[in-house]
Amino acid sequence: MRIARRLQDLAQSDIRRMTRECERVSGLNLGQGICDLPTPPLVRDGAIAAIRENRSTYSFAEGARELRDAIAKKLARDNGLQADPALEICVTVGASGAYASAISALLDPGDGILLFEPYYGYHLNAALVAGLTPEFATLTPPDFTLREEALEAAITPRTRAMVVCTPSNPSGKMFSREELSIVSRVARKRDLLVITDEIYEYIRYDGRPTFPPRRSRACASARSASWVCRRLSASPAGGSDTPWRRRS
User: Fold this and answer.
1) pLDDT for 78-137, tens place per residue?
2) What's the pLDDT at 14?
3) What is the predicted pLDDT for the residue at 235?
């Protein structure tokens, strides 16, 4: 059987490959965030209650309204963002699902999508599956500083979107307010969609603040041209409920 040409260069991610090798030799897996802690009682008891109440029918495609209302309250409380749960919040199965949905709905095959290197592998692979053209802006260690002239140089006539992962997987890079201003300024100038992956917003050290891109003053005018991916199971309350992932 011949597979589609757009999939022929895809390979299993190094994270999953190392997990398989680790299990094969009964090793200690430091490569993949697989938690073996007990599911939080609130999540466990809520799932059991839903099953007992026969809440097993289809919900709305955008997610149950009470969940979207709760997400809107979280965004207002923790991120200073006002989002309409009826029009601006969509619940997906995983941040990967949110990202894939966004690029499939908003970009066409052949469009350029800019990734900051080092990048999360799924951001690249999902773009390839969608028929997009990956483009790269390399950030160099140890600080991985984003410079406006380098970002401008990485953009081509086919670029339609850029992906900002902050705090970053895999580098841990946290974009500063100034760097997000650069992203917003260039996005407005070049009419680009900004897709932000912020699932590690609570995993930070030394009291360092994180700046949600859509909250920054510079990004406010680009609100209609941004798509945010967040994940419940990467939060402090959800870090041990990996199988119960929901994203917005």
Assistant:
1) 888 899 999 999 999 888 899 999 999 999 999 999 999 999 999 999 999 999 999 999
2) 84
3) 54
SS3 53: coil
Token pair in block for residue 51: 């099953």
Residue 240 structure tokens: 């041990």
Asked, for residue 139, whether it belongs to a domain, the answer is: yes
Residue 3 reports pLDDT greater than 70: yes
Which residues lie closer than 8 Å to 221 by C-beta, 6 or more apart?
184, 188
Range of the domain at 101: 41-244
- DSSP code, position 25: T
Judge residue 209's burial from the number of C-beta atoms within 10 Å of its C-beta, 0-12 exposed, 13-18 middle, 19 or more buried: exposed
Distance between CA atoms of 242 and 244, rounded to whole angstroms? 5
For the residues 135-161, what does the mean pLDDT come to? 97
| Inside any domain, residue 144 | yes
User: Residues 129, 19, 14, 94: is their CA dihedral positive or negative?
Assistant: positive
SS3 at position 45: helix
Q: Give the whole-angstrom CA distance, residue 235 versus residue 225.
A: 26
Tokens of 86: 């009826």
Give the pLDDT band of residue 220 (cuts 50, 70, 90): very low
| Residues in Cβ contact with 41 at an 8 Å cutoff, skipping those fewer than 6 apart | none
Place of tokens 């199965």: 93
* CATH number of the domain bearing residue 81: 3.40.640.10
Beta-sheet strands, E only, within 186-248: 193-197, 226-229
State pTM to two decimals: 0.85
Strands 193-197 and 159-165: parallel
